[in-house]
Write a structure and sequence with these properties.
This protein is of the alpha+beta class. A hairpin with a 2-residue loop joins strand 2 and strand 3.
Length: 129
Amino acid sequence: MTGTLNALVAEQHVADLARAAARHYEIPSRPPRRPGPAVELRPAGAGDAAAIRRLAALDDAPELEGVVLLAVIDGEAVAALAVDGGRVVANPFVPTEHAVALLRLRAAHLSRASSRRRRRIRLPWLRLA
């Protein structure tokens, strides 16, 4: 009787372990999407001059010059960053902390990519015998 009971307990234990392993290795089909507005990062064009002036006026700062990156949320420009100087103007009435962080990250990527293009790697010439 004890042997049969031990076999049943062992069988249940193995089944429990199999279920736990199946849950552990379960891969979700799609990661859950957090609700919230999508942020669009893009270089500012000629048509964005008024939006950049508006952001500078709202932020009580001078206008940005040179190459400018723009953060747009729901079709509205909420922050802008001058790539050369790293100066930022943003709408103070909209939470823009994350958008500005994304702009800084993108500007860093762009500056690294442009410096790689300018730098040339010189390899010594190999002579074949």
